[in-house]
């Protein structure tokens, strides 16, 4: 299990530089905050599960989880949304105790009334008019081959396939590539598939977006080699 | 008597006599005889509209005070608790138009319980008795119930204009009363109002012969309206110039409305996404092209690149484009902007990103106001939004920019310094770096120098909202340089009481100060005690103020209302939320149990 975790971390996304030790933001400034968090989450889970195994090549102080325990609300931490570039620099991680200039106390996650946006406005952006779901989100599970745990996303938040795929790429640190009607996602490492209302597994991208989000029950990011032969709606 | 630069009501009204003044009967100190008979003075004053000017006039001498009160027809009350309906009724006798504002601004962000107050009912009862010729009522952040709306509808035969901004408390039943009884209604304008499912049945209650409407805005009300009734209403109101519908109206329905009202100057569309036949598409396109007078455009829910081109023909004379309900991408946004050369005011969502703002810089040379709202304020979906680069791009291309509201996740001091050099005419600078206490992302310094640059460079700055990591230095700058500042909003900033003290000792024109989550305590609160009577209000929440400090303030200044809301289950001594405002009406009688007037 442990080696599978490490393999997962190594083989995904060459755009990010990894190191085994959870870095402090001072030593590896390019390391995105969310990757650190994800890494730590995975690390702690794997450590808990592998007590009896031979000790991995982690050093003792790496258990000093400065940046946050796993299971913490991800919304608290800034992170990059796509695999392209790490747009957020690590100096944004000023909620850590290393920032000794901060006079105001570090903020809790989602403070009441902050940021100062009106509630009607906030709701307008999240709720796209869908006949089936009334106001609440359209959350579906997303699994990825090789990943130890699933994620959940709100389909209503995205306007089109491009936004959705960008978000998935960022969430799972993978490249999904470009859709083509003939070839599907051939040429890229992963392909997004979904289970529709009838229980069939379909390739994402064939049907119009509106139709997709009303029929999608769950998502699965498959290895492209396994997705060959998924003929969409043909 | 406090000669304040802005006084909606004089804090100390002179004893008003009930008869028009006559200098021979005056009981005051002897003044030289006024060269003008009262009738002349009153005639001259009837041309003075601005409530600030009128306030100044009323302070000159007693007969001027009386002449002014007899000729005032428009009432502006910036804080409904600063004065009471009774006092107003005694002073003014011929009022046709009333503007009333209620809750503190932070109530927009859920920082006040719903039943805090600002119910307009007692005012309506007084108006019904004393101002039967009332024509206009404009409310902001007040509660108005269905009973209130019914009272309004039935008490004023000449009633013309109702405007509700950020109001609550009503349902469609109240609106039904307005529609049914206000025969001469020219304006029904409901914006930003937080309502539960209101229902749309009210629209069908306008009588068949009712045709006087000029302004109709129900864009923020949910609930489907009967489209046929709406279409008939629009077709018979020939003077209609402002029409803002809600999301329930579809594109092809909109087309039919536009056919009836091509002379609209302001349009708020409904939902902007619909499966259209080519013929429908063409018809809608033509309808938009025929709207040659359009200056203001809003709505556009769910607009995508497929449908935006429908608008192109209507944008030539557009001065205000409100895309705050339409999350667009940079490409489609830039294409739309190319058709709007005359834009002066633009509201967008940060999905357009820096690239979109670059397009603003290159396409909108006349731009004066820009607001960029966050698509993802709670950072749930990790969208990047806009950065300092977008703001810089706009400042380079839009030298006339004087109003900005900018939500972002990162900013630098250097960028802001450059921005205000490019645009030195800022009057309103509201920068919201969304992570509290965040420093300059490149240098890790506090953002003090950014706001220092704003107040040093922008001599005319009237409104400022600060954010990011800020020390007391920011407030030193503001206190020293922002001589025209009237409104200041502060959150998660400052290092000590000294910061707030700098503000209270500087900023001579300060009227509204709202502070949250700052390390300011009793000393800071009390440093401003001489100033609060000259201000409309002070809000401080989650700071370090205690009940003791509040009591000291209240005791020394009886003309201030010091209201405290304590935290549930919190320390008894901590004043969790403090609201201080001047008032000639004494402590308010409708305070709910959780509001303590100290």
The spatial strand order of the largest sheet of chain A comes to 2-1-5-3-4
> What structural class do helix, strand and pairing data of chain A support?
alpha+beta
* Residues in helices of chain A, as a percent range: 10-25%
Largest interface in this structure = A-B, 44 and 58 residues
In terms of per-residue confidence, which ranges of chain B show pLDDT below 50 for 5 or more consecutive residues? Answer: 1-30
What is the CA–CA distance across the termini of chain B?
Answer: 24 Å
Compute the CA-based radius of gyration of chain A: 20 Å
**Strand-residue fraction of chain B?**
15-25%
Number of helices of chain A: 6
* First-to-last CA distance of chain A: 38 Å
Largest sheet of chain A: 5 strands, mixed
SS strand fraction of chain A: 5-15%
Mean pLDDT of chain B: 91
User: Helix/strand/pairing class of chain B, anyone?
Assistant: alpha/beta
Main beta-sheet annotation of chain B? 21 strands, mixed
By oligomeric state, this entry counts as: heterodimer
Number of strands of chain B: 21
Number of strands of chain A: 5
**General form of chain A:** globular
Radius of gyration of chain B, in Å, reads 26 Å
């Amino acid at each position: 299990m442990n080696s599978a975790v490490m393999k997962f971390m190594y083989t995904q996304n060459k755009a990010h530089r990894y190191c085994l030790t959870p870095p402090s933001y001072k030593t590896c400034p390019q390391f995105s905050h969310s990757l650190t968090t994800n890494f730590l989450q995975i690390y702690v889970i794997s450590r808990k599960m592998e007590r009896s195994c031979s000790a991995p090549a982690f050093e003792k102080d790496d258990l000093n989880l400065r940046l946050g325990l796993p299971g913490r609300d991800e919304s608290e931490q800034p992170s990059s949304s796509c695999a392209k570039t790490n747009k957020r620099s690590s100096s944004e991680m000023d909620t850590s105790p290393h920032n000794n200039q901060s006079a105001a106390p570090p903020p809790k996650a989602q403070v009441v009334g902050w940021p100062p946006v009106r509630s009607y406005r906030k709701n307008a952006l999240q709720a796209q008019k869908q006949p089936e779901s009334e106001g609440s989100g359209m959350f579906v599970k997303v699994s990825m081959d090789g990943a130890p745990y699933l994620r959940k996303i709100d389909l209503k938040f995205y306007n089109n396939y491009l936004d959705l795929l960008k978000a998935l790429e960022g969430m799972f640190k993978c490249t999904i590539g470009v859709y083509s009607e003939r070839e599907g996602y051939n040429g890229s490492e992963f392909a997004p598939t979904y289970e529709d209302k009838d229980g069939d597994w379909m390739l994402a991208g064939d049907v119009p977006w509106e139709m997709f989000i009303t029929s999608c029950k769950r998502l699965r990011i498959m290895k492209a080699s396994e997705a060959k032969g998924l003929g969409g709606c043909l | 008597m406090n000669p304040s630069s802005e006084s909606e009501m004089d804090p100390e009204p002179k004893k008003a006599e009930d008869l028009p003044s006559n200098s021979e009967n005056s009981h005051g100190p002897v003044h030289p005889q006024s060269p003008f008979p009262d009738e002349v003075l009153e005639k001259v004053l009837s041309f003075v509209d601005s409530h600030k000017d009128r306030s100044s006039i009323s302070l000159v001498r007693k007969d001027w005070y009386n002449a002014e009160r007899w000729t005032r027809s428009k009432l502006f009350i910036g804080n409904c608790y600063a004065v009471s309906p009774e006092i107003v009724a005694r002073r003014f006798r011929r009022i046709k138009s009333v503007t009333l504002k209620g809750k503190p601004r932070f109530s927009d962000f859920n920082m006040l319980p719903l039943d805090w107050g600002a119910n307009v009912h007692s005012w309506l009862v007084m108006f019904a008795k004393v101002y039967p010729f009332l024509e206009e009522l404009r409310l902001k952040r007040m509660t108005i119930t269905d009973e209130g709306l019914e009272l309004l509808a039935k008490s004023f035969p000449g009633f013309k204009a109702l405007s509700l901004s950020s109001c609550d408390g009503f349902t469609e039943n109240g609106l039904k009363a307005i529609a049914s009884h206000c025969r001469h209604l020219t304006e029904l304008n409901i914006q930003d109002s937080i309502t539960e499912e209101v229902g749309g049945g009210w629209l069908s209650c306008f009588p068949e012969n009712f045709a006087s409407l000029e302004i109709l805005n129900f864009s923020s009300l949910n609930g489907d309206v009967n489209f046929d009734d709406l279409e008939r209403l629009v077709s018979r109101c020939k003077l209609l110039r402002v029409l803002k519908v809600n999301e329930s109206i579809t594109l092809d329905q909109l087309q039919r409305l536009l056919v009836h009202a091509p002379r609209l100057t302001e349009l708020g569309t409904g939902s902007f996404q619909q499966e259209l036949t080519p013929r429908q598409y063409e018809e809608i396109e033509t309808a938009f092209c025929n709207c040659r007078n359009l200056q203001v455009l809003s709505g556009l829910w769910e607009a995508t690149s497929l449908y935006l081109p429908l608008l192109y023909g209507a944008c030539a004379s557009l001065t205000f484009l409100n895309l705050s309900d339409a999350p667009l991408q940079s490409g489609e946004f830039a294409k739309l902007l190319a058709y709007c050369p005359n834009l002066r005011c633009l509201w967008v969502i940060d999905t357009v990103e820096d690239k979109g703002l670059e397009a603003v810089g290159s396409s909108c040379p006349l731009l004066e106001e820009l607001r960029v709202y966050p698509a993802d304020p709670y950072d749930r979906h990790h969208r990047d939004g806009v950065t300092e680069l977008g703001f810089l791009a706009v400042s380079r291309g839009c030298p006339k920019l004087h109003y900005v509201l900018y939500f972002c996740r990162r900013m630098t001091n250097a960028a802001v310094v450059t921005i205000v050099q490019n645009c030195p005419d800022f009057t309103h600078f509201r920068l919201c770096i969304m992570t509290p206490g965040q420093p300059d992302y490149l240098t890790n310094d506090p953002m003090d120098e950014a706001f220092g640059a704003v107040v040093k460079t922008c001599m005319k700055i009237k409104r400022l909202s600060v954010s990011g990591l800020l020390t007391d230095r920011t407030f030193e700058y503001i206190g020293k340089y922002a001589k025209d500042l009237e409104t200041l909003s502060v959150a998660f900033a400052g290092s000590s009481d000294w910061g707030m003290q700098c503000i209270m000792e500087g900023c001579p024109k300060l009227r509204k100060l709202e502070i949250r989550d700052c390390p300011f305590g009793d000393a800071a609160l009390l440093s401003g005690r001489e100033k609060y009577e000259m201000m409309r209000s002070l809000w401080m929440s989650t700071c370090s103020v205690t009940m003791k400090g509040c009591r000291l303030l209240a005791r020394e200044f009886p003309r201030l209302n010091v209201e405290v809301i304590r935290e549930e289950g919190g320390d008894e001594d901590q004043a969790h939320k403090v609201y201080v405002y001047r008032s000639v009406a004494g402590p308010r009688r409708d305070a709910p149990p959780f509001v303590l007037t100290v």
